[in-house]
Amino acid sequence: MKKILLITVMTVVMLFLSMPGAIADPPVTPDESKVDDRLIDLRERELQLERDKFEYQKSETARAEYESQFSSACDIKRKIPVYSIVAGIYYVDRLNLRKDLSILFEQGHREVVIYISSGGGDAFTGLSMADVISEFIAKGMTITTHADGVVASAAVPIYAVGSERVSSPSTLFMVHEAALWKFSFGYSKESHSDIAAQKQMMDKLQKKYLDLLASRSNRDSEFWLELEKKTSWFTAEEALEWGLVDRIK
Predict the structure, then answer these.
(1) Who's near 43: CB < 8 A, 6+ residues apart?
(2) In a domain, 54, yes or no
(3) How far is CA 232 from CA 12, 173, 176, 212, in A?
(4) How many C-beta atoms lie closer than 10 Å to residue 42's C-beta?
(5) 215-224, long-range: CB within 8 Å, 24+ apart, which pairs?
(6) 147: exposed, middle or buried (C-beta count within 10 Å: 0-12, 13-18, 19+)?
(7) Residue 76 belongs to a domain with what CATH number?
(8) Are 127 and 161 in contact (CB under 8 A)?
(9) Does 193 map to a domain?
(10) Is there a domain that residue 169 lies in?
């Protein structure tokens, strides 16, 4: 009987122990030091996020201030800054070009690309912008001019003075005689000497234009003069043959 009773008791104990939750896990006491460490780590992450946010905002402000120095024609987001001439050429364009190239030069940039897609404008400004480009090339900048679509009239000397002159295949070029624009309300008068002075000015302007094209091509001034007289359009391939274009791309 004792043996049977012992077996019965042992069986009951084993059944009891096999039941889930029969012996409860001891209560877990939070480790306060570990909780504190987690809170400290979380706070450090929050502080780092705040620092990153501050640095990002500071860099964005600095970038915006830097970009605001340039005219809308200058794109400095690219590895090589790009200046675009995509409309009529007037005096303000000369001011913007000089200012933008000056800032780029001071900041250490030594390469610039000037994209030109222009029907021309003021002949004096065109020659003056060509002088600005030549001045910065002489200082050590490489200024590539890139013809795209149309390069005509006052835009031609700007294009011609580039360190390298690149043209898209479909670009058309045009040269013509300079015209003198006059605005008058009602009657106006000009003396013989006024007209003579205007002719002298136009002759000198034309000579500057022709001499520049001759110096930047393999054709002489007389060649360009004949083209000017009849308002001549020519292709990128012809410009390449005449030495006005270095590469068609």
Answers:
(1) none
(2) no
(3) 114, 8, 7, 17
(4) 10
(5) 216/160, 216/161, 216/243, 216/244, 217/160, 217/242, 217/243, 217/244, 218/242, 218/243, 219/243, 224/175
(6) buried
(7) 3.90.226.10
(8) no
(9) no
(10) yes
Q: Which residue has the tokens 């120095």?
A: 69
Q: Using only C-alpha atoms, what is the Rg of the chain?
A: 39
Q: Report the domain count for the chain.
A: 1
Note down pLDDT in tens along the chain; length 249 residues.
555 655 665 665 565 556 555 445 555 555 666 766 777 777 788 777 777 776 676 555 655 676 689 999 999 988 999 999 999 999 999 999 999 999 999 999 999 999 999 999 999 999 999 999 999 999 999 999 999 999 999 999 999 999 999 999 999 999 999 877 666 566 667 888 988 998 999 999 999 999 999 999 999 999 999 999 999 999 999 999 999 999 999
Listed residue (83, 100, 161, 90) closest to 126, CA to CA: 90
> Among residues 105, 133, 104, which one has the least CA distance to residue 216?
133
Q: What are phi and psi of 76, to 5 degrees?
A: -105, 10
Expressed as residue numbers, the domain containing 170 is 69-180+202-248
Per-residue model confidence (pLDDT) at position 243 = 98
Q: Is 27 part of any domain?
A: no
Q: How far apart are CA 40 and CA 17, in angstroms?
A: 43
Look-up of token digits 């009657």: 187
Tell me the backbone φ, ψ of residue 190, rounded to 5 degrees. -135, 135
- The closest of 140, 78, 81, 88 to 114, measured between CA atoms, is 81
Q: Is 56 helix (H, G, I), strand (E, B) or coil?
A: helix
